[in-house]
Predict the structure.
Amino acid sequence: MRLLLCFLILLFASGVRAQKPAKVGIENTPQVTINTVFTGMKAGDTTGLRACFHPDATLHGVVTKPTGETVVSAGSISGWFEGMQKADVGDWEEELNYTELNVDGHLASAWTPYVFNYKGELHHCGVNAFQLVKDGAGGQWRILHITDTRRDAEGDCSPVSKQTPREAIETLATNWHLAAANADSVAFFDAMADDAIYIGTDKGEHWTKAEFLGFAAPYFTRGKAWNFTATERHVFYDPNQQVAYWDELLHTWMGPCRGTAVVKRHGPDGWKIAHYTLSMTIPNDKVNGVVELLGEPRKER
């Protein structure tokens, strides 16, 4: 029983900075409820937290042993509150990598990978899965269920990245182009998801990652691939989802080109390129000349 209580306490400790619990009816979103609970957990303060939970709320922990056996442990909200009140403030810090939120009417689910630090040292990591319902006083979102996983084997966990998602995507894009300029094929193709698609400027260039590698290998082997530099870039990121995209204007040997990319999460903090399209930019007053030069059949206006 003591081990179960300890597990539940660790499960719900938070890395969010302390603040007073949000008032019911103010900023009614699932994220506000989650943040309020995490704030109270780190501060060791249960004041007002009961309102964040549905009366029938349940807790479960899922652990997979080295033997492959999966163990499911059930706990209680009251037991967790009692354990929190006995904990020393600041000993437990749970940092979230991100929150993937899905909402349908008055039902929401939140997927939150986390890293748990005990007295400043990385202790374990996993995922919290929340289910929330909007049925509280004033339309407040309340937690209906929480389940988490926990991993603590060597190499399983890494500290939470200090970069914002936008910064991480910007870094990915810049380093990807730099890898091509440096003829670093490992870094270049490792930045792409295994099922990535690359679309080049030629109408026949619709390549899988493997096909693109086959085309590009001779360029990387000779030590000089291509050197594209972004002169403008716009990153679009939805914090509730695991997919983002960017568009950019590139300075290239072909003149100004336009690139667009779709990226998806890879691990708690990483991103991989899932789709990239490269296109040449043509001034409107030169389109007819380019079309005639290509000699391709074209549709009448």
Remarks:
- The radius of gyration is 25 Å.
- The helical segments are 2-12, 30-43, 77-86, 165-181, 185-190, 209-221, 287-294.
- The longest strand covers residues 121-134.
